[in-house]
Amino acid sequence: MIRGFLLLMLATLLWSGNYIAGRLLAPAMPALVLNGVRWTLSALELYIILMFTGKRLPLREKWREFLLLGFVGMFIFSALTYLGLHSTPAAQAGMISGLIPVAILFFGVFILKDKGSRMAWFGSLVSVIGVLVLLGGHAGSGFTVSLGDVEILAAAGSWGLYTVLGKRFGRDMDPLTLTAGAAVFGAIPSDIAGLFSFSPHAFHMTSTAWMALVYVSTAASVIAYFAWTVGVERVGASRAAAWMNLLPVWTAVSGIVMLGERMTTVQMIGGALVLLGAVFAGRR
């Protein structure tokens, strides 16, 4: 159980870097092109890993499951995230994504018939309050909602659905196979959308942008998705929900260290509430 929580924590930490990298890549290449490149590389890496481990990828037998997971979790979630990062700061995007546990618990009720424990709901409520405090304490933004905020919010709902579906389909598949299959089918619509938005004049790649691209296609994709899938399998979707609220905390810290952003006292209080809620949600 402890290892499962550590894997969830690792996944959220790596995903926080995805917001930083996405923000750095915003002026370097179109968002949909970035999403296509990311998942093409990630699918290739995961397929190679499967070959070395001797596992078989049942693309034909499980195409419906992989198609749904790939479309919701890889294409929709990532595309909306990168589109939102064009106008929304990384720290604020991470804070909005802290509402993902609400989506996980909501979809879990209808898809998994998992109502969740009272402690899980209470912990999620505390974490949501923490996210609202973080948003309210963001210097100069208040509660103003932009198009980027809406895109990040829609991405949060998409990720909640992906998590619950992954729990359901993961009953007869191991996490590596599940993630690899979803990445393969997620890369297809991502590449198609990327081709429609492709423009040679829209690329302004620097050494930093290239490093960010490598990060989003490896650490934020292969490693993070695998860690999250394994963690959900070990602790359950309802318990995993509130741990996603660690994302705004990691994103705020990464923004301070890497982008020179600042945190107000109110934001630090909100971050403490997010952590407290995650701890409550993880208790039996």
TrEMBL record:
Q: Which family does it belong to?
A: Belongs to the EamA transporter family.
Classify the protein's membrane topology as the record does.
Answer: Multi-pass membrane protein
One Gene Ontology cellular component term attached to this UniProt record is: plasma membrane
Highest taxon listed in the record's lineage:
Bacteria
Q: Which InterPro entries did the record assign?
A: AA-Vitamin_Transporters, EamA_dom, EmrE-like
Q: Which residues cross the membrane?
A: 32-54, 66-85, 91-112, 119-137, 143-164, 176-196, 208-228, 240-259, 265-282
EamA domain location, by residue?
Answer: 3-135, 148-281
Which keywords belong to this entry? Cell membrane, Membrane, Transmembrane, Transmembrane helix
The opening ranks of the lineage are: Bacteria, Bacillati, Bacillota, Bacilli, Bacillales
Quick check: keyword Transmembrane in the entry? Answer: yes
Q: Where in the cell is it found?
A: Cell membrane
What is this protein identified as?
DMT family transporter
